[in-house]
Amino acid sequence: MGRRIFILIVILMSISLIGIIAVQLYWVKDAVKSKQLEFETNVTIALAKTSERIKKREYDEFVDKHRSFFENNKARTNAELKNYLFQQIDTVSKQKFTFGATILEENFKIPVDFVGNDTVIFKRFTGKEDFLYTKTFGAEDSKFKTFTDENKFSRYMTYPSWEKEQFEYLFSQNKKFTPIHKRISSRELNNTLKDELAKMNIRQKFKFGVYEGGLATPIKSGYFKIDESNNYFYPLFEDDNGNSNYKLYVSFPDEKKSLLSGMIKALLLSLLFIGIIIAAFSTSLYQLIRQKKISEIKTDFINNMTHEFKTPIATINLALDAIKNPKIIGDEDKVRRYVQMIRDENKRMHGQVENVLRISKLEKNQIDITKEAVEAHDIIEEAIDHVSLLVSDKKGTIDFQFNAIASEVLGNKFHLTNVVVNILENAIKYSDEAPKINVFTESTNKFFIFKVKDEGIGMSKNAQKYVFDKFYREHKGNIHNVKGHGLGLAYVKEIVDNHHGTVYVESEKGKGSTFTVKLPLI
């Protein structure tokens, strides 16, 4: 995958992720806003119904209180009878229409509390209406007799609308000067509010207070203070024109918490999907970067393997060409030397192939590593002997200090020896000058620890993260500046893990590296 295509894919994926998250967050914000608006509407409706119920209850009480005065003759002061008569005669059609009405106006003295005890005159109206309709058929000179068709009926009337208007006027005048705490109690207002809010499916804890002209009244729930940004209000005891001196304020201390709890399932589901999207994106991005890095490392590995095989193949070809030379084929010593050279180069290529196959088999668990009690110090000494010629050839030194009291571990001698050899060869390989290597051992109650310290070129912090990965090699400039194919330390990690141990590296650029291996003691 090209660098530009890779960057384009990452950018497109990032834009898509940001867009999806933005849409999810917008949906969540919109859902919360809609829920808030619905809550505010329901609260307003509940407050309106509360105000209406209280006003109706007070009016009904006023009417019931004075209903007895109409049934008691003592309250009646006088009565006036009013008669009305309307008559219409049509001589042409010989029709006559008569309407008569009798209205009885009764006056009652009703005590009301305007300013102290006082009375007002309340008028009650009842009446009777009579309808008469007649029509004469026939004429005086006709052979037929004349006769008259007559329709007559009566009905009794009351005038409740007149009475209601008087009651409402008396009610408004009576309550105009009555203090709020005598018109309603905090308990009644609390119960009514609770009931109306419950009808709107609002069961949160609330506080309320009634204010007159911006001043608090005794009607409130405990300590209440107006907070315009967090309170709902509605007029209380409105007159016919919609005016009122009182405002009922209500607040919900746990409003936001309750709103969120009401939609917690939807919010959690949305957050879950956002988390899944982020996790999927992160994983995909990580895999893309990892695959790109593996691709680069494998390309580097192939280049290095090609270089490693190219030299022995060229040497073998030269040796074969030399053997075919008539002047040399008769020289037995030279032929033997060239044959040995071919064998050595062939062995070298075989060893490199074995390293690759060994790592592959380890990953697939195809190598059966038998373990037994082995002496770790003996393994380290054998490994040091194995690389001593390489160190001497580069005029370097290997110093060791075996300070471990206990050194017996359960392991495979062959593979553990290769572990130490690979670490030592790595120290030799990455030393620009004569290698100076120190090997230390120590032990704890549970572990045998050995360290290999060199004074080589060291490695960066980033390289330390990947130094035990397959095919990884830190290099600069020419990729062939250090021979190898990045499998030695990967093999070390696999073997140490198989022995239930740990391996890690501490390094500083230009100052060398220290590899530490911990293996469990028997």
Summarize the structure in words.
The chain is α+β, with helices and mostly antiparallel strands. The protein has helices at 3-71, 160-176, 180-183, 186-199, 255-262, 264-324, 326-329, 332-363, 376-393, 413-429, 461-466, 488-498, and strands at 76-90, 95-113, 117-137, 147-158, 207-212, 215-220, 231-236, 246-251, 372-375, 397-402, 408-411, 436-443, 447-454, 502-508, 512-520. The strands form 4 sheets. Strands 10-12-13-15-14 form a 5-stranded mixed beta sheet, with helices on one face. Strands 1-2-3-4 form a 4-stranded antiparallel beta sheet. The chain starts with a helix and ends with a strand.
Descriptive labels:
522 residues, alpha+beta, five-stranded mixed sheet, four-stranded antiparallel sheet, 50% helix
Task: Give a quick summary of the entry.
The protein is an alpha+beta fold and 522 residues long. 50% of the residues lie in helices and 26% in strands. It is rod-shaped, with a radius of gyration of 54 Å.
Oligomer: single chain
In one word, what is the shape? rod-shaped
Q: Give the % helix.
A: 40-55%
Main beta sheet: 5 strands, mixed
N- and C-termini, Cα separation: 49 Å
Strand content: 25-35%
The structure class reads: alpha+beta
- Side-by-side strand order of the widest sheet: 10-12-13-15-14
Q: What does the radius of gyration come to?
A: 54 Å
